[in-house]
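Case study.
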Amino acid sequence: MTELGLQIWSLWQRELKRFARQRSRLIGALLQPVVFWLLLGAGLGGAFRPTGAAARMTYMEYFYPGVIVLVLLFTAIFSTISTIEDRREGFLQGVVVAPISPAVIVLGQALGSTTLALCEGSVFLALAPAAGISLTPAGILATTATMTLIAFALTGLGLALAWRMESTQGFHAIMNLILIPIWLLSGAFFPSVGVPGWLRAVMSVNPLTYAMELLRKSLYLQSLHLDVGSGQTGLAIGVTVAFSLLTVTLAISVARRGLPAS
Amino acid sequence: MSEASLPHLSAVVVAERANATDAIVAHDLRFSYGAHEVLRGVSFSISKGEIFCFLGPNGSGKTTLFKLLSTLATPPRGTLSVLGQDLREASRGLRRSLGVVFQKPAIDTKLTVLENLRCHGYLYGLHGLRLQERAQAMVELLDLRQYATARVHTLSGGFQRRVELAKALLHEPEILVLDEPSSGLDPGARRDFFNYLLKLRASRGVTVVLTTHHMDEAERCDRVAVLHHGRMVAVAPAAELKQRIGGDVVVVRGAHPEMLWQRLKQRLACPVALIDGTLRLEAPRGYLLVAQIVEAFGEEIESVSFGKPTLEDVFVQLTGQRFFGAGAETDQP
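After joint prediction, the assembly is written out as follows.
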């Protein structure tokens, strides 16, 4: 058991060291979402006329949790790209012939990436007052837990898509086709209230929609007295947990097939 | 042990013949990428403590063979046993007895030498004081002490290769498998690297299996297996392979090799071969031929060389092709 833990820890801390030594990555994953938040927040602020729960919000405030998820998504994407580089540069082949299971490799990568995403997300969380959100200790705790789940899920998804992928170019295509739309249609950018029926249907089968909802609830949490009983919160937690377990399991099963032949 | 007879034996017989002194026994290994067959029935056995090399040009199948030995790929046909166990199952214990050095660097160049060794050590189940001791011992063994805390990308190619070797040896494997370990190194660094392999074998009896296309490297191994288009065409100590060519080798180059070939054949008593635009003669006391050829065809000749047979000559004799130039196909599709 300790051996297994040390194996995962070994790959986890390597991800962190590499990240710390590549400053462009550190800034890239954080700065771009912040710029999006400021520009789109200011630009779309006037046009934003929501109904329902968001009725009294500014767009800056509405969009803020969406940008948190974008920070997590970008960090997950950067980590995934570094996995492809690991394979291209050769590091991964040395790991694959080691006496460890593919699950250990994927967990090490996923936990490393989740930690990084959480760090970046936490830095961005400090800007909450600027969005008009006053965080309580309970809110910070719940938000951190939610961010962890989301980061784990997104990393798992990225790894499942990238593990056997030949090139980073291929991954960019996948990113634009799958990962960014999943984010766009999660309620991060616009609420599902008032959109055409087909769009609402797509949003309701998108697991990230539920994660987004959980994050919104966490941000505004006043005390740790979670109303899990209320169907919506329970569903949001359930789907988010299931989503992260599913994607990481998927990534492990892809890794079990080994590296591509060439 | 005569490998030539192995293809006729069943896998069971091979398994029975495998004894305590065998590190690796392979029988009738085959491998294809789609319809492209890169290994066409390769059989061999390697003794413990031996330095064994697979010599072949690009496309001979040696990298594929390495992939099978390193557990990166499993053979769809044939048997491959390491230390008496079937490698197909690639159990964790068996993987622990293998040290693997890839042609492409498998170390993280953004980490320091020691960080790389520690990272790898954990994966192989080492930790704590034992890991510290092993890492330190490897740094000493490979003379990397002054670079121990340097990031790997700041080191020269030769030193990076040594870090690879340190990494592969950290967990004290019984067998070291290396794919073109000296590719990209200058001859000096190549010699140095091989000296470390000799040192290892002498100090801990490690079995070394490597692939190479460098003749000088192959010459220094205990036995050489010559690969050509996925088949093993010979296996023996380099000296023995060279002895099989009776006498000296004379190579003649000219502007019109075809014409020169015809005329040489008429003139000389010994057989003349035309291979990839050069004319080759094998004869005892070949120096006598040199004078004869230059006197008769001086005008048409660009160069004549004379020498004792090299491994390249062995390859030419076995395959009818020159070593560099035979690689029309690549190892991978």
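Observations recorded in class. Residues 48-77+87-241 of chain B form a domain with the Rossmann fold fold (CATH 3.40.50.300). Chain B touches chain A at residues 33, 70-73, 92-93, 95-96, 98, 100, 102, 104-111, 115, 118-125, 127, 167, 332-333 (CB under 8 Å). We will return to this complex in the next lecture.
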